[in-house]
Specification:
The protein is α+β, with helices and mostly antiparallel strands. The protein is 19% helix and 32% strand. It has nine helices and 22 strands.
Length: 418
């Protein structure tokens, strides 16, 4: 036999035996689930069930294969560009989960199962410089609409501080869908919050209202970009906006926050660049309604991150920059928008936008009944746009859909120090 044929036969034998063995939970599946799913799917996590033990994952193998094939799990909306802490499975990992499910979800040799991931109880960044919690626990009823609630948390009077990082710990991840921390220098929030917070859908109800950072399920502590800490005014009230989703049982929540300060003053300034519209009027049945906005940057800047936001009937988002030399760079592409999984994204590396770059944003909406039913169905806070804008479904069907402010915010800093 020629050596070449020998080699081919050997390769063939290897792949056949690998196929015959097939993926098992302990050898192939657990490492994927522990890395990409367990941050939410663990006891006490935000996911509806734990995926740590074979017993729990195995009986849901078909569902796991289905949601990963559709890219519904792990939740990650942008298809491009690259961001920090991406949650995405490779095609090989998706195929492994599918083959495992088809084979009846075998456990394999349980001694091979890697140790389950550990999730630290304490603050991940160590002891905070400022730590606080909601002044009282908030009661979330078993049923009813989602609630957006703002809680004022006073800070001690004193000098301005520079915030380099912040972290939040939901008191009750079963009902906390997301949380955003603002600061209020007007005293408004303090007046409105008489103990149990106040209702605040959209904005927290005062200006300026610049978010210091947010928490979404599975997110990591927020670190400000190097050299650009956020100013916390001495004596300002921190305002925690929490989106609650009833769990089916009466629950209480008391969310905690942690701030980390630095003495290094910023070398550059962060600016928000809001692009969007708050005069959106989508005719009933329109399947591909577009809203666009643009802005030409007047100086060299670095785009640090992007915070896409829209409501339920938005289907796609595309943001890009046209550089002065005509090159196009994608700033965000979301092929299937999902209101429930919005978050802020930080670029893997900042994107340099020279003076004269035109930043374009394009939102696409589908206001057909079919899509509204789809967008509202089976989601964590499954509702149609009618609920969001406070009209009943019938009224919205007859009239057009007025959407609240839809916008996208890039965080930009002048590339050259002032
Ligand atoms: C950031 C948190 C998070 C991560 C990471 C995550 N999930 Fe989920 N998952 C959820 C939440 C919350 C739900 C319930 C709401 C929903 O279905 O959207 C859910 C639902 C599911 C469901 C049920 C879907 C249905 O239609 O009933 C499956 C199955 C699932 N996840 C599997 C996975 C797998 C597999 C991974 C990893 C590859 C993963 N999830 C990663 C939060 C997460």
């Amino acid at each position: 036999m020629r050596p070449g044929r020998n080699l081919a036969a050997a390769l063939c034998a290897i792949s056949v035996s690998a196929l015959a063995a097939g993926p098992t939970f302990s050898h192939d599946v657990a490492p994927i689930l522990y890395r990409e799913c367990a941050s939410c799917h663990r006891p006490g996590g935000v996911g509806p069930f734990s995926l740590i033990a074979w017993q729990d994952a195995g009986k849901r193998a078909k569902l796991i294969a289905a949601v990963t094939a559709r890219h519904y799990m792990p939740p990650w909306l942008p298809s491009e560009p690259h961001f920090q802490h991406e949650r995405r499975l490779s095609p090989v990992e998706i195929a492994t989960l599918a083959h495992w499910a088809e084979a009846g979800a075998p456990e394999g040799n349980s001694a091979e199962t890697p140790p389950p991931p550990q999730f630290p109880e304490g603050w991940q960044l160590g002891k905070p410089d400022f730590e606080a919690q909601m002044r009282a626990a908030f009661d979330v009823p078993a049923e009813g609409p989602d609630q957006y609630r703002c809680f004022a948390i006073p800070t001690a009077p004193g000098r301005d501080r520079w915030v380099s990082a912040l972290d939040m710990r939901p008191g009750n991840p079963r009902v906390v869908h997301h949380a955003i921390l603002f600061q209020d220098v007007t005293g408004t929030a303090r007046k409105r919050d008489t103990g149990a917070g106040y209702s605040c859908f959209g904005t927290p109800g005062f200006l300026p209202a610049r978010g210091l950072g947010g928490w979404t399920p599975g997110s990591l502590p927020v670190r400000m970009a190097d050299g650009v800490p956020e100013l916390l005014h001495g004596g300002a009230d921190l305002v925690l906006q929490v989106h609650y989703h009833p769990s089916g049982k009466p629950e209480t929540d008391r969310t905690r926050i942690a701030l980390y300060f630095t003495d290094r003053k910023p070398s550059r300034r962060v600016m928000d660049l809001p692009l969007g519209s708050n005069r959106i009027d989508i005719p009933p049945g329109a399947r591909s309604y577009k809203v666009t906005d643009h802005f030409t940057v007047p100086v060299d800047v670095d785009a640090l991150g992007i915070n896409p936001h829209a409501h339920y009937v938005c289907t796609q988002m595309y943001g890009y920059a046209v550089l002065p030399d005509g090159t196009r760079r994608t700033l965000i592409r979301i092929p299937a928008w999902n209101f429930n999984w919005q978050q802020q994204y930080t670029y893997a590396t900042p994107i340099r936008l020279p003076e004269g770059t035109r930043v374009e944003m394009e939102f696409t909406y589908d206001n057909s009944e079919a899509y509204r039913d789809y967008a509202g169905a089976g989601r964590r806070c499954g509702r149609t746009v009618a609920d969001v804008v406070g009209k009943n479904d019938e009224a919205t069907r007859r009239r057009s859909v007025p959407a609240a402010a839809e916008m996208i915010t890039g965080l930009l800093v002048p590339a050259v120090s002032p």
